[in-house]
Amino acid sequence: APVLIFILGDQLSPGIASLRDLSPADAVVLMAEVSEETVYVRHHPKKIALILSAMRHFAADLREQGWRVDYIELEDPANSGSFTGALAAAVERHRPSEIRIVQPGEWRVQQMIDGWEARFGLPVRILRDDRFLCSIPAFRRWASRRQALTMEYFYRDMRRQTGLLMDDGQPAGGRWNYDAENRKTPPRGLNYPAPARFPPDAITRAVLDLVARRFGDHFGALEPFALPVTRAQALAALDQFIAAALPDFGDYQDAMVEGQDQLYHSMLSPALNCGLLVAREVAEAAERAWREGRVPLNAAEGFIRQIIGWREYVRGVYWMHMPDYAEANALGADRPLPEFYWTGETDMRCLAAAVDVTRREGWSHHIQRLMVLGNFAMLAGVDPKAISDWFLVVYADAYEWVELPNVVGMSQYADGGLLGSKPYAAGGAYINRMSDHCGRCRFDVKAKTGPDACPFNALYWDFLARHEARFRDNPRMRTMYATWHRMKPAQQDAYRASAAAFLAGVKPAADGWARAPL
Ligand code: FAD
Ligand code: DLZ
């Protein structure tokens, strides 16, 4: 009897552990497009199209290599609609000796898999996902030795463990982190590289028609669709990023420029997270470019830190703290999500621009996510579950293992500081420094209060005032509280009143945008 290898839609890597140590003669590969995965939240149509097209291309590649692939399309009449149902039918068809699967990315799916052995009366071999450089037990060991889970120390250990950017056991160039040289304000007239774009082939075209028909009412534009959907395309996108954008990646990492979506970011997260690329090869490509003198060290280091530092770290935090992490709400935030997160209809230009790129691309860069979309939600006191649902819906790279820690932890401080030692809160001055939005905004970033002042200003002070008991003794926030207390009571009241007046005019989103009504 064959081994039945179940490959999920974010496991599309030729080197995936479940295909190893078996030959095509001994196994059947199962892949299933299932409605449960397409609608557990109402994903951006580009994300659904990416995964279904990448799955179909991956299955075709496997067949070409001689594997027997049992592939269930979404509209197959016999499609049961769930991973467990697809597996049940495949077990009937193939009578396997064993089921093999790589551990899933998400807690939700792990819960399903945990029930399979009892349900099918077959051994279910769950393999470590070694596309991640740090295993879940290794992260737990690292975390158990520490009081605070400081990413920087985790990252240094990952550098030592992988040997990336290391020379004779020491960090290349003598320093672990070159952030001090990063995050400049971009001067006018910089040349921005064009993002890699891949026109749909016949497989993708068929998927686009399906997605338009079935999920056309989800938030976001399906077309134009130009994401990499094959490994060859993803490798081409990686090459193009390294050649054209990585040299300036570090310098302008926090910038926001109107009319420029990508700036010097890689836009590789959708391909990385569904497996078309793996972390090690991406980090190695950046290191190689530095060693060959094609990119400066601050750029290579900054980029590699995102991949082997942040990406691995948030996954470790997720698996250490689920399922409680999804319920975290340390700041007691309970405001419904504003409707403009879905419609983009707000006069705040930075927010409208961030929603707009998100709608068009199913992607936005980190500072838009953290310092605009996330920052606003935290300052306004939006329920972490509502904003987390939004982030899970709108990005083509969104999977709970990476979305949840970034939203609940990094951007909302809802985990009470597990992931960051202070909230990422900022007023209009920060956005003005890092972007060219404010000059064209209807609100005045220099004005502090009143109906024409940038709402971020009053929201910022109102947030600090609301949470003073929690944050006042935080050494990294003392200066801000000192400033707050130097203000006259009338000024403080004006901030509070401005924040309240602005929030009173923000329309809450109706139910049903993120999750279909039951
Ligand atoms: P680049 O700027 O080119 O960075 C390179 C790579 O580093 C990314 O592709 C990504 O794989 C990795 N990376 C960078 N920062 C992070 C991070 N904080 N956590 C994990 N990986 C990181 N990333 C996702 O992949 N999926 C998400 O659902 C997601 N949700 C986010 C929500 C919020 C509120 C915030 C603040 C960040 C979120 N991120 C998420 C992290 C980050 O914003 C995206 O990975 C990044 O914007 C993707 O664009 P890029 O590929 O051009 O990244
Ligand atoms: C996100 C997604 C979607 C939209 N559709 C499918 C699908 O039809 N079949 C599949 O195998 N995977 C899909 N995925 C990705 C899964 O949700 C992902 O593999 C799990 O969440 C585990 O991380």
Automatic annotation (TrEMBL):
One protein family per Pfam: DPRP
Domain of life: Bacteria
Entries under PANTHER family matching the protein: SLR1343 PROTEIN
Name of protein: Deoxyribodipyrimidine photo-lyase
Source organism per UniProt: Sphingomonas sanxanigenens DSM 19645 = NX02
Lineage: Bacteria, Pseudomonadati, Pseudomonadota, Alphaproteobacteria, Sphingomonadales
